[in-house]
């Protein structure tokens, strides 16, 4: 397994995804809320693009890291580096969640972690990405 280079890139929710999460609470009449966040990259490629290609359909999800959510972002990064317990217990660590409510009931994309002294490996079914700490 190769060691990959991890990073972030600014991203915006794709409001064109058909059948995505919607809300009727917006005063401006939009049915989907624009959301900016920091998407994960591995070797320069966005992880959400990789997952979308794997699923074969667009995903209406946003990453758990964002400048607008400093406390939640800090906690998410600690979990993703294996420094604290997974937020979903045996189900793994959240990577992407609902762009409207960030709730688990709307579906969440997770990863499982393998942690050793020098690396953290994110596992997605049969594939894995190893990241140096």
Q: How would the blueprint of this fold be written?
A:
Elements: E1 3-4, E2 6-12, E3 36-42, E4 45-46, H1 47-55, E5 62-63, H2 70-80, E6 93-97, E7 109-115, E8 119-124, E9 127-132
Parallel strand pairs: 1-9
Antiparallel strand pairs: 2-3, 3-4, 5-6, 6-7, 7-8, 8-9
Task: Describe the structure using short key phrases.
alpha+beta, 2 helices, disordered C terminus, single chain, 9 strands, 33% strand, 6-stranded mixed beta sheet, 3-stranded antiparallel beta sheet, 133 residues
Written account of the structure:
The protein has helices at 47-55, 70-80; strands at 3-4, 6-12, 36-42, 45-46, 62-63, 93-97, 109-115, 119-124, 127-132. The strands form two sheets. A six-stranded mixed β-sheet has the order 1-9-8-7-6-5. With 133 residues, it is an alpha+beta fold. 15% of the residues lie in helices and 33% in strands. It has one domain. The chain contains two helices and nine strands; from the N terminus they run E-E-E-E-H-E-H-E-E-E-E. The longest helix is centred in the middle third of the chain and has 11 residues, at 70-80.
Main beta sheet, described? 6 strands, mixed
- In DSSP terms (H or I, runs of 4 or more residues), the helix count works out at 2
DSSP strand content = 25-35%
Order of adjacent strands in the largest pleated sheet: 1-9-8-7-6-5
Through-space gap between termini = 16 Å
Residue windows where pLDDT falls under 50 for at least 5 positions: 128-133
Instruction: Give the ordered list of helices and strands.
Output: EEEEHEHEEEE
Mean pLDDT: 80
Count of the separate structural domains: 1
The whole-angstrom Rg is 15 Å
Helix content: 10-25%
Gross morphology is: globular
Number of strands: 9
Structural class: alpha+beta
